[in-house]
């Protein structure tokens, strides 16, 4: 058949990595300690410890938690550490920061744990658009991780990718 349409993208040896495929399930929560501070600004140790002791931490089961203080209070590191000790039994991950920082940290763990054996000397396309909140930093982290092993790295879709890196031939 002379008019047969051939999908050259499907036949190519390109490997597509879609970071959205690695998006872990679990609610993301911003935990603001400001309400546990006197007038939202002063940490009184005894009162703070009471809030921590009385709080129902089980509600954060299998959730990702970003700890923050939305006021201009000076919060000592131990306060966040104390909260983290309680969360550790329930949350999947706890960080200090906002939800964007949390998402970046989650992806950093995922990318650090990636097995790169299947990407050795391959032409790789890191898929662009996603429907899930994949942070821009995840693309940077993945690119750094792949560069030592990949033959080439591109960004986008197979039909319209942007070349980023091509390994130089050793002479």
Question: How would you characterize this protein structure?
Answer:
The structure is a single chain. The chain has five helices and seven strands, in the order αββαβαβαβαββ. It has 171 residues and is an alpha/beta fold. It folds into two domains: 8-24 and 115-166, no CATH class; 28-91, no CATH class. A four-stranded mixed β-sheet has the order 1-5-6-7, with helices on one face.
Write the layout of secondary structure elements.
Layout: H1 8-11, E1 15-17, E2 28-32, H2 45-54, E3 64-68, H3 77-87, E4 93-96, H4 99-112, E5 123-127, H5 136-146, E6 152-157, E7 160-166
Parallel strand pairs: 1-5, 2-3, 3-4, 5-6
Antiparallel strand pairs: 6-7
Helix pairs in contact: 2-3, 4-5
Low-confidence stretches: 6-11
Kindly estimate the percentage of residues that lie in beta strands according to DSSP.
15-25%
Shape: elongated
Number of helices: 5
Q: What's the average pLDDT?
A: 92
Neighbour order of strands in the largest sheet: 1-5-6-7
Structural class: alpha/beta
The level of helicity is 25-40%
The biggest beta sheet is recorded as: 4 strands, mixed
Order of helices and strands: HEEHEHEHEHEE
Radius of gyration: 22 Å
Number of domains: 2
- Quantity of strands, as a count: 7
User: What's the N-to-C terminus distance?
Assistant: 44 Å
């Amino acid at each position: 058949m002379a008019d047969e349409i051939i999908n050259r993208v499907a036949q190519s040896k390109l490997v597509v990595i879609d970071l959205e495929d690695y998006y872990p399930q679990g609610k993301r929560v911003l935990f603001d300690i400001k309400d546990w501070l006197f007038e939202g600004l002063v940490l009184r140790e005894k009162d703070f410890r009471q809030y921590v002791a009385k709080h129902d931490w089980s509600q954060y089961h299998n959730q990702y938690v970003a700890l923050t203080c939305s006021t201009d209070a000076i919060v000592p590191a131990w306060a966040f550490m104390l909260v983290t000790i309680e969360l550790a039994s329930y949350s999947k991950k706890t960080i200090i920061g906002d939800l964007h920082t949390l998402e970046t940290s989650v992806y950093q763990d995922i990318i650090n744990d990636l097995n790169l054996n299947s990407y050795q000397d391959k032409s790789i396309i890191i898929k662009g658009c996603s429907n899930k909140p994949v942070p821009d930093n995840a693309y940077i982290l993945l690119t750094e991780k792949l560069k030592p092993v990949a033959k080439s790295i591109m960004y986008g879709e197979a039909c319209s990718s942007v070349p980023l890196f091509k390994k130089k031939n050793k002479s």
